[in-house]
Design a protein that fits this description.
By secondary structure, the protein is mainly alpha-helical. Helix content is about 75%, strand content about 0%. The chain is globular, with a radius of gyration of 18 Å.
Length: about 290
């Protein structure tokens, strides 16, 4: 549970770092993924492990889902309001409830459903309570829904892959495949540098920070998939918009409204209650022996 919570904190902080990079979203994703691919390949081979045929057989689907999520979410925030895109993504636990029961035999309790509904409401308050939510189009709304499907698929395929692959082995193939998915869209869009078209050292350092901070979230959540239920891991991600809003207020001085503060409180209380309750019960997942990364 601690690993899953850290993953969401890392993503929440990483979102603020991403917002500070003066590049379009696909360009950031392009560089983040090739940086990540190189780092994970070096780490994997330095540890004496290798990419195997089985690595791609069990891990490719998660990489495709992750790459699709990045591409579609970027298009969503370009064509609709950030509030809409964020709130639609927050519906992920509702999508995963059925898959958790059918594919992994997890028991869905009433508290999971209640916490999901209440937390999604809190996320909506955080998103739509922002001072400026921007405009929206139906095409943008469609991409937001596609991003939601891809994000849910990433969790399902990652949990399935972790039944066969170690965390670093899976993360390496995940980054590589995701890069191959995103690269054509990023290259077609051009502008892979800053305002002057180049990737200057300051931008490169911030992208590296994204890999190390937000990227660590993916390492920890994929390690956690072998130890916690899919439902709980998905529920915890609902704290991400609240964390990003709080960090943006503290680090970037972005305005936070009373409605957003109430929404953050609703999310944290609802998630805190279900996480504490679940912590008292033995998780309904297979025992895993892989050490924490």
């Amino acid at each position: 549970m601690a690993a899953a919570v850290w993953a969401v904190v890392a993503w929440g902080v990483g979102n603020v770092v991403i917002a500070s990079v003066p590049m379009n979203g696909l360009a950031i994703a392009f560089h983040r993924l090739w940086f990540g691919t190189v780092i994970y390949l070096v780490a994997l081979y330095a540890s004496g492990r290798r990419l195997r045929r089985a690595t791609f057989r069990f891990g490719w689907a998660g990489g495709v889902a992750y790459g699709a999520d990045i591409a579609t979410f970027f298009l969503a925030v370009r064509l609709t309001s950030v509030a809409t895109a964020t709130t639609v993504s927050a519906l992920q636990p509702l999508v995963l409830l059925g898959f958790a029961a059918a594919m992994f035999g997890e028991r869905i309790r009433a508290r999971h459903v209640v916490a999901t509904v209440v937390s999604v409401g809190g996320v909506a308050m955080v998103a739509f309570g922002a001072p400026d939510v921007g405009g929206s189009t139906r095409l943008g709304d469609l991409f937001a829904v596609l991003a939601l499907i891809a994000w849910a698929a990433y969790f399902v395929t990652s949990k399935r892959a972790r039944e066969q692959l170690g965390t670093f082995e899976y993360m390496t193939v995940n980054q590589l495949v995701a890069f191959l998915v995103v690269a054509p869209f990023a290259l077609a869009g051009g502008a892979l540098g800053g305002a002057d078209g180049t990737l200057d050292p300051s931008i490169a350092l911030r992208i590296l920070l994204i890999v190390l901070v937000a990227g660590s979230g993916h390492v920890f959540i994929n390690w956690a998939h072998a130890h916690v239920t899919l439902v709980l891991a998905s529920l915890i991600t609902l704290a991400m918009p609240a964390i990003s809003t709080a960090v943006a207020w503290a680090a970037l001085g972005q305005e936070v409204t009373v409605v957003q503060v109430v929404g953050i409180a609703v999310v944290m209380v609802a998630l805190g209650a279900v996480v504490v309750r679940d912590a008292r019960e033995r998780p309904e997942v297979a025992e895993a022996t892989e050490p924490l990364p």
